[in-house]
């Protein structure tokens, strides 16, 4: 039997969502250069320990960023940068998001929100291994104001949530620098408070009202209308178009109502008709912080004048123009003055402006590709090699293999040989020129008690150099002036091998971030828009109705078709963008005119182009095909889906997995342990070489330099061979490559913790409507009662009332009822129901109620309409006949029912003025991959359940169709009971639960509590923003449910690679250290310091190369619709909707390599043809 949950109490889903804290921290983001491992990030973090005003510090080695939360009144962004630089790393402040000061007009909630935590991102330079990250992280432990700290070795970034009142971004940078790393603030942004729950019924503070105006003939008319709104209380923004005969007014409805707007226009002598009045995207009290790069400032006075000019603009709250950095920080109300208007004002003042986001984006792309680091280490390697090779030839190669050319044995003075003098001269530039960076970093890390790998490099090379110098002095000053045993070649070759290793390592690191870099580069730099978006929108609406008239009107007034090209970052919501064949789409939007196929593969992973028509949505970063399309921008800049994807991937690659924290912790202790082992090796062999009657032959061999020289070499080998870099790079490189590949396949994993948890999933709970089913329900029948069918007008009134009541709901059932109402009333899909509805209330999982007035009602009566399940109507005092419920139950209980796609029938009941008026039956369609997904999960050893707010009968029908046992079906579940179900499944067996690690899959607001409660929340990208925010994995291809097992398989593959990397890093040291320590000297086996240096360089490179193998990941060949559900695959093929299995599945081993090579060359070809984009063969995907 299915479990049915029908609690009496009703609870809104958003009441269970967490609320944002109300503190007053700023967030500073810095770029940190020079980090190489976890010890570096730990060194940066430790620099903030005990620092007053410091909050959470997050340092990312992969992203080369540090994000610091701090109190700006106690810890500035400059101080944060100093702290990081003091730690031995390069730091640059990228951005600081300060808490916004609450305005007098803001309400109490706004005041509270303004005191929220801030998130600071810092670029950290100089990290090489886990010891570095541990050193930085340790600096922020127990620091007042730090709430959360994350650091990534590969990206070289730290992200810190902190209280800006206690720890400023500048102080965060200083703390990281104090640990011996370079720190640069990248970004500090206000932690956003959660928005008001949808459907709460509370009206927003800002409305955007559109009014149609008739009678305007020239510019004087528009001026007359506009003058009526000047200095009007409550009016925020006014736009009017003569050609479109429309005005768009942004206003505060508490001070200026839409009706009053129409009256003001009519008072000016024109006819006005309200077209729409909708909530504005941003509240009037909200503000946006923007940073501009200003070019052309000549002195501080010009900066002050520009600052005054911008401050005078309406809606601009604060302006700060810094002449020294040529940057302007502007806080403004975007609902009043947009960014484009501010940039135009700067240009009108005689300067050039560039949005700093684009500049920082280019800098981040360069950082991710490691361009600067690769150039620096290549140069260092070439210079050191130029000196090291002659030293090697003089000191080792010529004496051993070309003794007749050994000019180095010429004695210039007593105890001084030509070869030693030349080697000393050639070694100094390498030791103190190229090696200078190692000395600086080592000093700063030791200064703060957080030694990094650079300490080992300095100890090893310095020991070789200074021992050789000391040997020369002893030979020169004391008889018998024999030739000293020098090892200058060890010093120079060690530094050469280390610089070569760093060069190769950074090249490999640049490849790990290739997927993220490609995502960040998808959006075009420029966009073409209409100069008058209102006129263009009106023309698009009328297009096709009177096409000739539109063309004639456009010919008479050029403004209708006037185009202009602007930078993409200046696009604003409401702009009409023109897409020509082959153009990249610059923002999210909705098609207003034209149709074309769009290639979305680079964002969603979907192989085939999708046909886009009027009303269809477009995503930024995708590519237009052969048609011309106009679309209206709905989300631009940081709000686009592409930007959210990039942000999710960045966060995933910045947030460390628990296993990585352990590795970084070990790396933090690695250096002191290795130094201790090196000293112990030296002391032990010095004692043994003198105490043993027959020590190993190497100690007695004069060519080896004697006992002291052999012991020194062994000590150097131990110190140089053992490197924490491989340990620190094991996890972040695998996470970066894996999450990047996942993003390209349409699987977004939010961080290492989610990745690690996904590998432990034993049970998957799936929502039914919109997840297993298409979610586009249709009305299959209506049983109208109570006299509403006595006449045709009466029946039409019933459909009108039902349709108007459901108009305010976004639920799939509501949309289906509205469409059925329009169909029965003879209206088209775009037709409007004549009437209005108010006092709308939705009880999630149960039903809706509304007061409805229908224009066709003969007595203009207001009706109270109730629609929902039987229990909901009964709770409202409605008597629901038992026969209405029994009819649906008998149909759904029929095992052989396959007439409606095996999804059963959902029934809802209706009542008007508390009188039962009938039952509506609806059916849905299973997604083609639903059955195959359950089979794939079962093959992975994962069981499945269905949880739904729908009735028991259709839930059981879907379970039978996909192969889920009836005992695993939870029907009639409200958001709170869904949450309880997840908690019950996850409760340990000892406490009476089932002991599962649960993954919840959903797409709606009502799934959000369950998504947040589950160990792993998986959201479909077609769902709501709240659901995607609550989830830890987001799937960009909602119709391909095989992405669910694919995401689990990807997580398992990444985690296996992490464990393999860690095993290799640990095994490398465990096997190699005994050789370096001389355990096998009795058998004549040892590790020369030069060989130890080469081995050290290979260790980190090998780990990164291992992680790069994840780029070949594809779905296993068995995880395809053809193999799991041949019948469904055949049906898909027959419908022309076959999934691209060549892209979706690839298997493993050699087949994966071949697939990767093919994709590599295809990518190269696409880049070569980018100037003239040729779309792949077109296919209408329909609803897929």
Automatic annotation (TrEMBL):
GO terms for biological process: copper ion homeostasis; intracellular monoatomic cation homeostasis. Its EC number is 7.2.2.8. It is an enzyme of class 7 (translocase). SUPFAM superfamilies: Calcium ATPase, transduction domain A, Calcium ATPase, transmembrane domain M, HAD-like, HMA, heavy metal-associated domain. GO terms for cellular component: endomembrane system; membrane. Pfam families: E1-E2_ATPase, HMA, Hydrolase. Keywords: ATP-binding, Copper, Copper transport, Ion transport, Magnesium, Membrane, Metal-binding, Nucleotide-binding, Repeat, Translocase, Transmembrane, Transmembrane helix, Transport. The keyword Magnesium applies. Residues 7-20 have a biased composition (Polar residues). PROSITE patterns: ATPASE_E1_E2, HMA_2. This is P-type Cu(+) transporter. It comes from Diplodia corticola.
């Amino acid at each position: 039997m299915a479990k049915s949950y029908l609690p009496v109490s009703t609870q809104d889903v958003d009441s269970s969502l967490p609320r944002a804290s109300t503190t007053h921290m700023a967030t500073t983001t810095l770029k940190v250069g020079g980090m190489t491992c976890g010890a570096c990030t730990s060194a940066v973090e430790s620099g903030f320990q005990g620092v007053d005003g410091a909050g959470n510090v997050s340092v990312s080695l992969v992203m080369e960023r540090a994000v610091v939360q701090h109190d700006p009144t106690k810890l500035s962004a400059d101080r944060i940068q100093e702290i990081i630089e003091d730690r031995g790393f390069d730091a640059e402040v990228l951005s600081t998001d300060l808490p916004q000061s609450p305005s007098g007009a803001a309400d109490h909630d706004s005041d509270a929100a303004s005191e929220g935590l801030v998130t600071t991102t810092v670029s950290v330079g100089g990290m090489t291994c886990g010891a570095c990250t541990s050193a930085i992280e340790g600096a922020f432990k127990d620091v007042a104001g730090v709430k959360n700290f994350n650091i990534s070795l590969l990206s070289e970034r730290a992200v810190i949530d902190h209280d800006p009142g206690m720890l400023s971004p500048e102080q965060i940078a200083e703390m990281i620098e104090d640990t011996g790393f370079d720190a640069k603030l990248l970004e500090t942004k206000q932690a956003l408070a959660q928005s008001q729950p949808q459907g709460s019924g509370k009206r927003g503070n800002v409305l955007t009202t559109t009014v149609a105006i008739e009678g305007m003939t020239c510019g004087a008319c528009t001026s007359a209308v506009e003058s009526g709104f000047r200095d009007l209380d409550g009016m925020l923004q006014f736009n009017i178009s003569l050609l479109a005969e429309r005005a768009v007014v942004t206003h505060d409805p508490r001070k200026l109502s839409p009706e009053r707007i129409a009256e003001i226009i009519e008072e000016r002598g024109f006819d006005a008709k309200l077209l729409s009045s909708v909530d504005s995207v941003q509240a009037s009290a909200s503000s946006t912080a923007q940073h501009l790069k200003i070019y052309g400032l000549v002195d501080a006075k010009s900066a002050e004048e520009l600052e005054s000019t911008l401050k005078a603009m309406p809606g601009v709250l604060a302006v700060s123009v810094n002449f020294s950095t040529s940057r302007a920080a502007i806080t403004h109300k975007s609902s009043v003055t947009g960014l484009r208007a501010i940039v135009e004002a700067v240009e009108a003042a005689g300067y050039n402006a560039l949005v700093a986001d684009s500049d920082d984006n280019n800098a981040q792309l360069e950082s991710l590709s490691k361009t600067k680091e690769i150039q620096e280490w290549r140069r260092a390697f070439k210079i050191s090699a130029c000196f090291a090779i002659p030293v090697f030839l003089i000191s080792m190669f010529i004496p051993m293999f070309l003794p007749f050319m050994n000019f180095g044995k010429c004695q210039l003075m007593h105890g001084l040989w030509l070869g030693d003098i030349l080697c000393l001269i050639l070694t100094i530039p390498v030791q103190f020129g190229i090696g200078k960076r190692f000395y600086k970093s080592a000093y700063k890390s030791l200064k703060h008690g957080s030694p990094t790998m650079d300490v080992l490099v300095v100890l090893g090379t310095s020991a070789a150099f200074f021992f050789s110098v000391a040997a020369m002095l002893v030979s020169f000053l004391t008889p018998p002036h024999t030739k000293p045993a020098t090892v200058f070649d060890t010093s120079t070759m060690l530094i050469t091998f280390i610089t070569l290793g760093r060069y190769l390592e950074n090249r490999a690191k640049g490849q790990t971030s290739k997927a993220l870099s490609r995502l960040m580069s998808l959006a075009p730099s420029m966009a073409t828009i209409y100069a008058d978006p209102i006129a263009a929108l009106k023309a698009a609406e009328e297009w096709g109705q009177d096409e000739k008239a539109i063309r004639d009107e456009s010919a008479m007034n050029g403004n209708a078709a006037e185009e202009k090209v602007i930078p993409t970052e200046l696009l604003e919501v409401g702009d009409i963008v023109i897409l020509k064949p082959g153009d990249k789409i610059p923002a999210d939007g909705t098609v207003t005119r034209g149709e074309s196929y769009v290639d979305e593969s680079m964002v969603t992973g979907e192989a085939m182009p999708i046909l886009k028509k009027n009303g269809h949505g477009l995503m930024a970063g995708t590519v237009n095909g052969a048609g011309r399309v106009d679309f209206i921008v709905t989300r631009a800049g940081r709000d686009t889906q592409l930007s959210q994807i990039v942000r999710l991937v960045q966060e995933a690659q910045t947030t460390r997995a628990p296993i990585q924290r352990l590795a970084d912790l070990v790396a933090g202790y690695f250096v002191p342990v290795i130094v201790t082992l090196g000293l112990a090796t030296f002391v032990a062999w010095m004692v043994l070489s003198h105490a043993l009657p027959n020590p190993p032959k190497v100690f007695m061999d004069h060519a080896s330099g004697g006992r002291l020289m052999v012991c020194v070499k062994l000590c150097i080998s131990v110190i140089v061979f053992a490197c924490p870099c491989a340990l620190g790079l094991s996890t972040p490189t695998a996470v970066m490559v894996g999450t990047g590949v996942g993003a390209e396949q349409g699987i977004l994993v939010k961080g290492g913790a989610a990745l690690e948890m996904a590998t432990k999933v034993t049970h998957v709970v799936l929502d039914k409507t919109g997840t297993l089913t298409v979610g586009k329900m249709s009305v299959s029948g209506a049983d109208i009662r109570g006299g509403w069918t006595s006449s045709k007008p009466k029946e039409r009134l019933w459909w009108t009332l039902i349709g108007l009541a459901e108009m305010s709901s976004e639920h799939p059932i509501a949309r289906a009822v509205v469409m059925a109402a329009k169909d029965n009333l003879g209206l088209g899909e775009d037709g409007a129901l004549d009437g209005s509805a108010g006092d709308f209330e939705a009880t999630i999982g149960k039903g809706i109620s509304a007061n409805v007035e229908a224009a066709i009602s003969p007595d203009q009566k207001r009706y109270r309409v109730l629609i929902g399940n039987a229990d909901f109507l009964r709770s409202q005092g409605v008597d629901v006949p038992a026969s209405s419920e029994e009819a649906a139950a008998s149909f759904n209980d029929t095992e052989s029912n396959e007439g409606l796609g095996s999804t059963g029938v959902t029934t809802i009941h209706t009542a008007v003025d508390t009188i039962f008026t009938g039952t509506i039956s609806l059916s849905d369609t299973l997604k083609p991959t639903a059955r195959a997904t359950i089979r794939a999960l079962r093959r992975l050893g994962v069981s499945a359940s269905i949880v739904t707010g729908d009735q028991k009968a259709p839930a059981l029908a879907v379970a039978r169709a996909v192969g889920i046992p009836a005992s695993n079906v939870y029907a009639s579940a409200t958001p709170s009971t869904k949450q309880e179900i997840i908690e019950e499944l996850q409760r340990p067996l000892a406490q009476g639960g089932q002991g599962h690690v649960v993954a919840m899959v959903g797409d709606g607001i009502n799934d959000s509590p369950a998504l947040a409660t589950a160990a792993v929340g998986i959201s479909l990208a077609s769902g709501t923003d709240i659901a995607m925010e609550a989830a830890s994995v987001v799937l960009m291809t909602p119709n391909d449910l095989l992405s669910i097992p694919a995401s689990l398989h990807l997580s398992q593959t990444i985690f296996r690679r992490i464990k393999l990397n860690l095993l290799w890093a640990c095994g490398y040291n465990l096997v190699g250290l005994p050789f370096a320590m001389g355990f096998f000297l009795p058998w004549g086996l040892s590790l020369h310091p030069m060989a130890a240096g080469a081995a050290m360089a290979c260790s980190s490179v090998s780990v990164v190369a291992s992680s790069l193998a994840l780029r070949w990941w594809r779905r296993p060949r068995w995880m395809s619709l053809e193999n799991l559900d041949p019948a469904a695959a055949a049906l898909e093929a027959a419908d022309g909707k076959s999934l691209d299995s060549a892209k979706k599945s690839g298997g493993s081993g050699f087949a994966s390599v071949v697939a990767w090579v093919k994709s590599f060359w295809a990518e190269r070809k696409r880049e070569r043809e980018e100037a003239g984009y040729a779309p792949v063969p077109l296919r209408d995907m329909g609803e897929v």
